[in-house]
Amino acid sequence: MEEALAKIRPHTSSALSHQKTPAVLLIALESTFKEQHTDASPTAYFAALLTTLDGTLQKQKQGADESEVLHAVLYLLALISPFVAVPVVRANLNTVLLLTGPLFPHLKDHAPALRSQLSIYHVIFQSLDRSQLEIQGIRQTFASILQLCIDPRPKVRKKAADVIKDVLSTPPAPLSRHPYSERVAEWIKSALSDVGAGPLSKSKAKASEASPETALHIVAFVRPIIAKLPASSIPAIANLLLALPRLGHSYLSQSSYSILSELFVLPSEDGTHVGDRLSDVLTVVLASPPSKSDTILSPAWVQVLGNAFSVYRASDSSAHAIELANVWKTVWSFLDSSDATTRKAAAQSLDMLCRSFTPALISSALQDNASNSTLRKIIAQASKALDSLAYARAMPELLSVISSMITNLRYRPGSRASPTVAESLLLHIIEHVGKLRAQKGFEYKEAADVTLATAMRVLGPQVLLQVLPLNLEPSDRETGREPRAYLLPLLTQPHPSPLSHFVSYFVPLSERMFDFQSTAEAEGRQSEAKVWSVLVAQIWSGFVGYCHAPQDLKEAMTSSFSQLLSQLLYGQPELRPAVLKGLKALVETNVAAQTPKEGDIPEPDALTVVEAAANIAVLRAQAESWLAVFFNVFGSVGRNSRGMIGDVISVWASVSGDEEITRAYIKVVELFKNNMTLAAKAPSHGGQDLGSVAATTQDILILLLPYLSSPDATALFSLCLGPQVLSGKDNGVQKRGYKILTKLVESGKVVIDAEAVVRKLDELSDGLAPAAKKDRFNLLSLLVPSLPSTAMHMIPSLIPEAVLGTKEPSEKARTAAFELVLAMGKKMSEGGIVKRNLIDGMDEDGASDTAANLEEFLTMVAGGLAASPHMISATVTAISRLVFEFKDLISVKMHTEIFTTLLVFLTSANREIVKSILGFVKLAIHTLPTDIIQPHLKDLVPGLLGWSHDHKNHFKAKVRHIFERMLRRFGWDEVYSCAGEEEAAKVLVNIKKRKERAKRKKNARAEEGDDDENEVSSKTLNNTLGHANMELQAPMNRAVTGDAFEDVLYGSESELGDSDDDEAPAQSNKQQKKKQVEHGARLRLDDDEPIDLLAGAASRITNKNSDRRRKPGQDASRFKTDEDSGKMIIDNDQDSDVDARSSIADVEGTAYRESMTSVDGFTRGPNGRVKFHKDTKKRRREELEAEDVEMADVETGPGATKKNKRKTEPKLGHEFKAKRAGGDVKKKGIDPYAYISLSQASKKGGRGGRSNLSITGKK
Q1: Is the dihedral of CA 177, 178, 180, 185 positive or negative?
Q2: How far apart are alpha carbons 720 and 656 in whole angstroms?
Q3: Does pTM top 0.85 for this prediction?
Q4: Could you report the per-residue pLDDT of 1040-1066, keeping only the tens digit for each?
Q5: Burial degree of 437 (CB within 10 A; 0-12, 13-18, 19+)
Q6: How far is the CA of 331 from the CAs of 314, 378, 665, in angstroms?
Q7: Do residues 818 and 806 touch, judged by C-beta distance below 8 A?
Q8: What DSSP character marks residue 1055?
Q9: Three-state SS at 1128
Q10: Other CB atoms closer than 10 Å to residue 596's CB: what's the count?
Q11: Gap between the Cα atoms of 313 and 328, Å rounded
């Protein structure tokens, strides 16, 4: 509330009355509060404004013109009301109704005041209980707001609609639906009845008649609240919406159909009980089909049919089967529309119809061998459309419909071994799609790939490859079969084919292809070898598709196949990721099948729980062998490649037995100990390799940690806590040692003595490596909360390390250090005893014990302020974090002592210290109460102003941000009075001016946006009806880091930029959208080959525009080739012949462009006089030719000494020419190499189409 009021107060001197009056009134109210010593609370503002409103209305009754004051009072009331407590609003309900209720008629012509009135009632309605809703004034006010939902003014209409929507969305407890929902439903039915009673009037003069805008406003109001209305009213509203399309208004029809579509897809618990009348709905919709050329109404109409039919199936399955053929035929007729949106909507509707295929419908299609059943007719229609010229441009939509048919016909009428319905009925269509995909001129290969991917997922490669074989081997190519390598990437998705099919078909195929690759490499055919290598990789990438809970795991996962997979992991790095993905999926999918989630619908071919358990037993029997393989592979690859192998180890370890895990753990630990012993004995230059091996074994131990038994975990904890690990020479071993200890403590499998462990870690801190600090901080953060209350003397020894850690270069290490500081603060705040005689450095002073508390901990941390500048900076940062976290637990006296102590360092000459102090000041102004900071403003403001002109370390920007926060909290007068000298005070004046300037610009942009909104035409309103309830301007989201302390300390809430240039032009956020013109389908020219338009037309149709596309090698085809060397020869005569023929096509239809940009271009002045272009290509060429002739004449004459002063143009490719050499050797007068691209060499030059290059490749 204070932020909102702060934006109003500066407008007391505004020239605009609607800005000045609320500001003056607000200042007057606050002055009254000060005189009466009243807190400026929301309740005080609310009561004062109600009193002011009463007085204003009394003056108006006496004849005074108080409209401006009235509007200002309503504006402030609307601003304050959301912050007023609900009991206060309820207690003053009668007063508010008495004062504001009669104002609706008077405010009708004043939109801003009317919006304020609506905002007030927005709060009031959400504050009422059940009994207050029946008050007469409340009911009348609600009726008035309902009428405003069809107001012609956009902002008023939107505000009223928001009030109604929010009221219905928040019913009073314990009701689930608002009592006013019935009144709203009755009003909607009445309004829709009035609209549908007669023809729409296009005249705005007659307010009594329904206009298109009014009807659209009603429909826009219905859309967001339809789910909040009573269930009994939905059928009547649906009938009224069905009557709107007969009025002949396209946008109104589109809107009504859209609402009906949303109504059908709503969940049943929202009251969409229209199932009993769906038959009538379908009859009405089918009786009024729009024209195919109506691009506005057709998509919505088609979508209504699809949504209604999907609900119809659930309500009446027998009648649904009868109507399916009629509805399918009607929707299918829109699939060949010329409008892309209509085709897409038709495809979506057909997809919903495909979901309506019932088992009875499918069974009748399987039993009926003739094409009499509905389903067979549908399939025959789709098959015929693939070759039809009428559906050529709808090929993507047609393929998506076929995909839906495949997906919804994966039903198996018999056992799991029986074929799916899609295999029985759609296999010929899938084969046809595959043939289209292989044709060179087919443009929709991506859509065909989607359809084939669906077939692969439903049928599986075992079935699909029987009708669409791969044909990748040389023997297949010799017989002229078309290769289908595009099927290999589709194997990666889950499918029902057994794993044994991969073993019997793809494994031998990959072996033969590997032999082809080896032969090609041996014979020097590297390109062919690369092709075979890629094909082998694609085959094995499909291995994961077979590993999704296979039914024949026990039979397929034989020892020979497992040995093959192991050899691939060891010897084929290119195939290793594919094999690892498959082995990982093998375990995960079976575990998921064994423990299905509640509510999940199993797939048709999914394993049962018993079958999944049997598969897991097979995997568990092989787990120990596979873990050994994975460990070896893990150690043999680089560090960056271990992530996937680590995931596979974790997955397989999760299904391994306890004995297998223990044996694997013992082997790894023994290997780790041996490597550590060898690393300690090895010389320094060789220790690094052994250390890396030890670190690798530690990585494996980390992966096994979650599955270790408690005794094994305890033994591992003792091993890693030793000095050989935590003080070793290898940084990686140290880091992983701390990480293992942290994970063991987190797991809870190890019972530890926290005090002894912390003491042990303190002894090992001398040999700490920088890379291990983060994990050490994490470990200490877990151990500190476990310290007994009598061991608080251990905390002071950890403070210096943790405080210095807050200045670490690594962000993760700094975060861990902050967490350790907070953990120690929380532990100290819980109480205990600090035995000072046990603290290092205090045992000889005879210090007595003291109670542990938060302030004692802050005192300990503050001891770092007497150390080095780096330690002082770190201490200030740590104290800032503690103050932010425990601000409510720290006493006011301690807050004051901390603030005054740190304020001294603001005048320090060390920039590192000052940087931390500025962060603390920023946090204090944001967090601490004003009573603590206010007495020290006289010292704080001059100290900050001393750094306001320092640009290093961004001090100037930081100080400006601090002052902006300070001005918001303490006000301008109080801060400015502490500025001191005039020169320093100019900084504050500059900040104030910049802030006011930014606000003026912001208000100007907002007013421009309001003006633009008021100029919205009726057509624009109709086009954007679906977005009528969207906010005009979304608030600018401030970027946050996710950590509140980081946001306060390093984030900026400045309303101004860091730059001093305030006059920089604002960049417009509006991006101009390029107009996309859809080109109709056309025939493609195919080298005079005859086209059969009755069959196979899809590969000869294109939707692309007729611009010639650049083809690979088209530049090279322009030039002759030397027969001996194979080099291209750039011949000037050849270029001129080619370009002369192509230049004729550049004349037609370019007259205007020719007059503006050609060599003979001209423009006309204001008097109509013609002015020819001076600097044209023609003039430049003529001058160049004349000058060349003169130079030739002069230079060939006797005694020619005059040099050409004209600057010669650089030769093409001059940047590649040798600087000191004499040039390349020429053979037959031709350069051996061209220093330019072929596209550059083949460019036309001048109007005659002659090339600018000579036979030597130069200009």
Answers
A1: negative
A2: 25
A3: no
A4: 444 666 666 555 544 444 444 444 444
A5: buried
A6: 20, 12, 65
A7: yes
A8: S
A9: strand
A10: 15
A11: 14
